[in-house]
Every structure is written in C-alpha cells, then in structure tokens.
Amino acid sequence: MGLLDKEFSDGNIVIAKVDDLFNWARLSSVWQLGFGLACCAIEMMATSMSHYDFDRFGVIPRNTPRQADAIIISGTVTLKMALRIKRLYEQMPEPKYIISMGSCANCGGPYWEHGYHVLKGIDRVIPVDVYVPGCPPRPEALLEGLLKLQGKIRNESLRKKSA
Amino acid sequence: MALKTEHMVLNMGPQHPSTHGVLRLELEIEGELVKKVTPHLGYLHRCFEKHAEAMQYNQVVPYTDRLDYLAAIGNNFGYALAVEKLLGIEVPERVEYIRVIMAELQRIASHLVAIGSNGADIGALTPFLYLFRDREHILSIIEETCGARMLYNYIWIGGLSHDIHPDFVRKTKEFCNYFKPTIVELDNLLSYNKIFIERTANIGVLPVDTAINFGSSGPTLRGSGIKFDLRRDDPYSIYDRFDFEIPVGKGLMGIVGDCWDRYYVRIREMEQSLRIIEQAIDHIPEGDVQSAIPKRIKPPKGTVYKRVENPRGELGYFIISDGTVNPFRVKVRAPSFVNLEVLGELCKGYLVADVIAILGSIDIVLGEVDR
Q1: CB-CB under 8 Å, A111 with B113
Q2: CA angle B52, B53, B58 (to 5 degrees)
Q3: How many angstroms away from the CA of B348 is the closest CA of chain A?
Q4: Structural domain count of chain B
Q5: Domain with B163 in it: what CATH number?
Q6: What's the mean per-residue pLDDT of chain B?
Q7: Is B340 inside any structural domain?
Q8: Contact A100, A71 (CB under 8 A)
Q9: Which of B7, B236, B251, B307 has the most C-beta neighbours closer than 10 Å?
Q10: Do B367 and A38 touch (CB under 8 A)?
Q11: Which residue has better confidence, B18 or B246?
Q12: Structural domain includes residue B22
C-alpha cells in the first residue's frame, strides 16, 4: 500500500465509471469453486501451486458454491455427474462464470465416440464462457484461459440491454 | 443421565474437496462416531473396457494413461507387458532400462501427490506446495523426452514412443542429488510433525488378516507390515537386477497398520525408487528403442494376465484375444478399487474427521476406481 498511501495523503476522491470499477473488482478476484473432476484437476492443482501460482490473478479456491464466482470444469463429465454440476452451478450467486478445461469438458474428448456414459461437452448442461483445449491443458493454457475470462469481464456492462 | 444421540446419514461428496475426486461416501453416524461407510461409485465411469473392445491393441495405450492419471507410465508399462507376453516378443535392453527409470520417476511423482494431498486434507497445506514444486522437476524431465506433462502415451507395445532426450541422464542425476535432502526436509516438515502424528497415528488401523482378506496391495498392504512387492515377488522387466528394499509399516508412532504407517511407507519407497534409478541410469545400453515395435499387432487366440507394481498397488491386465486386431476384452484389476473396499472396515468407530485422514492414507485415484 506504500504507493497509494503517498498518493492520497488527505482524504481524496477517485472518479471512475461504475462499470469500470465493478468490472475491475470482479476480474481481479475471480474466486473459483475448488472442485476437481478427473485428470485435468491435477493440472488445475498444479496451476494453483507455487510454480504457476494462480493466486497472483486473484483466483482462490472456495469450498462452497455460495462463495464462488467461477467454476472450472476440470475433466470428464459423466452423465451421473452432470446433474450434480448443474445443481452446483445453480447454487452459485450471480455473476458467475464457467471455464471448461480440457477436451473432455469441451466436447467429450477421447471418449466422444464410444463413451456411453460421458457427456459430450459440458455446454449441453450449463453455459460456458471460456474453452481451454488440451488433454490435459498445460497450466499455462489454463492461465491464458483465465486471462481471456478477465478480458470478457472487463467489457461487461451493468446497464440493462435496451430491447 | 445417558446421552442420547441421533442416528443420521451424512453425504460426503461427490464435490467434497477431500474425497480425491468424485467419490461419494454415505456415512451413517451417531453423534460424531462413524458406524458405517458406503462408497458410491460411478461418477467418473469413462467406459475403458468398451473403448478397449473398439480399439486396436496399440490404440488402447492412451486410454490406459487415463486410468490412474497420477501414474500414467506405470499403466502403459503394465499394458505393454501384457500384450508383449501375448505376442511373445522380447524388447531391447535399452527399452527395458528406460522403462524402469521412467516408471520409478513416475512412482516418486505419484507418491509426492499422495503424500501432499494426505497432508493437505487434514490441514497441512505447506508441504503440499513444497511437494508440487518437486513434482515439477520430474514432470519437466519426462516432458523433455516425450512431450507431455501428465498423460504421456510413452511406453508402446514393443518399445517407446521416443528415445530419451540427450539431457535426460544428466538431469535425472541432478534430480536424484536434489531430491535426497528434500526427503529429509519433508520428514522434518510433516512426518514428525506433532499435529500430523496426532491426526494419523493409531487412526484407521488395518490388521494384517483384514488387509489380506480384502486383497489390498501396495502401500496399503505394506503399511500393515507385509513385505509384498511385485517388483521383488513376481519380478517383471529387469527389476530382478536391482538391489532395493521393501519398506513396511513398523508402528513407529502407534499400532502397526495405522494411517501414519501407510504414509511413512510411501516416503521410504521414494528413497528406494531413487536407489533403483541411480543403479540403472549409468547402464543404459545403446540401441534403437523402436526396433521391436511390431508393424501389425495381431496376437494369436488366447488369454494373458500380467501384473505390475503401480504406486497404488497391484495393477493387473487380463486380456482375451480372439485372434483379430482388436482385443476381445481388457479387464483391469485396479489397485485403487480394491483398496477402497477396505475403507468401510477402517472407518468403523472413528470420528468423521478421521474418515478424511483414512481416505487420504489409502490414496485412491477415481479414474482407476471407476475406469
């Protein structure tokens, strides 16, 4: 805080657009639901750990959907699990974002042809904001996906769209 | 006045952060005491056997990666050995050495995650960060050779997908030198940590006869004090050439076969893996790693069962061949699945919080449980 302390020595005012302020706050603290499905979850964990450090983008895993802003669908979604994910998504407060991580969550991945118990893409159940390809995606790819999501949040507007 | 507690059913999972994936446990509890645990499976059933029927023999290898995704090379290894036994082919010496070194590197990487998540589940998050840092070293060594970080598709039937990188030997030696002091650091950080011992010692005791009756294998069995390791007892590949010990649980902190013993066996196993790597790394012979790969894989009619020691226990492949290019059936004997069955016995009479510690010490991978 050293820099800001010197800048505003006696109570000051910052003027900003509401949209910019809200978007800035939202995109710098995307709290994700700490939730792993399959192989990609290990790469998601590796991304959160010291080598890649998800925390520096403000991504902190939360254990309950009530406190989460984003959910990373990290792995194969089976038909049995799809209903659970839908419920988790519905439990999250607005605004909520979804990163689909890995080929399985994008489109069924290697299981698209013979996987009788695999959902062919999570977007058949819940709306997806960013798709990250790879099997599994490298941590750098997931970081890129997050940056894309932040770019998307930056351009959002609070105004109601005119009819 | 007697305290009256209510019998209730508690669901843990499938989105619980400590169930190591999408496992659902149905706990029947009285107050805080666990009376019965019923695991519910199938949240990650990815139809491995169906895929194996539909694919050709060599196309199944990438799907074996995704069984136990923390030890992908171990899975490739077992499958390749099984099909090679069916075909009756010998692989070159160089391939054998590289396979063993890779499998042991993978064993260390897998145990690092197992130990880390066991600690993280019961509140020690710092070792988790340290261990993932060390795991990155192994991943970068393997990545240099075969191009992937986690799911490698490296061990092919009759050979390897790539020869080793020119830097492989040097970097592996560097890693061995780097990692030895790290194990000591880990011991001081977690193994002899008072809080960790309190949470794991005397918890979830697995008696020897129960372990055998349930068919447990790997660190879960060895934690109970039985020296059973397929690398020694049913040697495959070239494991009979190396000198290594089989660490078993001795009950240093409590009763033999408790959570701490199972945890400690993994740490000592990493040391033994380093020993194997150091014995093998200087003796990799020259040769072509792809010379024995068959052009067309069409085994004769018959069945084969081949088992290998994966980080989680005995991984077996039972393959039925009907003489065509596709396997008729590939049945996987998954160590995690078998080890998970003992959970109900282990958790009886312990607290709800101990279920987490016990589950962490068994170390399951859901990709392998559900297949």
Answers
A1: no
A2: 50
A3: 26
A4: 1
A5: 1.10.645.10
A6: 89
A7: no
A8: no
A9: B307
A10: yes
A11: B246
A12: no
Tens of pLDDT along B167-218? 999 999 999 999 999 999 999 989 898 999 998 988 889 999 999 999 999 9
Domain membership of residue B331 (yes or no) is yes
Q: Residue B37: helix, strand or coil by DSSP?
A: strand
Q: B311 in a domain, yes or no?
A: yes
Min Cα distance A150 → chain B (Å) is 25
- pLDDT score of A23 more than 80: yes
CA distance to partner chain A, nearest, from residue B251 (Å): 31
User: Residue B141 belongs to what domain range?
Assistant: 44-185+207-335
> Residue A36 is encoded by which pair of tokens?
């792993």
Task: Please report, for residues A99, A100, A140, B117, B367, the alpha-carbon distance to residue A44 in angstroms, rounded to integers and kept in the order given.
Answer: 12, 12, 10, 14, 16
Task: Say which of A42, A50, A113 has its CB closest to residue B69.
Answer: A42
Which amino acid makes up residue A2? G
Q: Which helix (H) or strand (E) holds A70?
A: strand A70-74
User: Which residue, among A42, A13, A35, has the nearest Cα to A81 in the 3D structure?
Assistant: A35
ipTM: 0.86
Cα–Cα distance, B102 to B65 (Å, whole number): 14
**How high is the pLDDT of residue B179?**
92
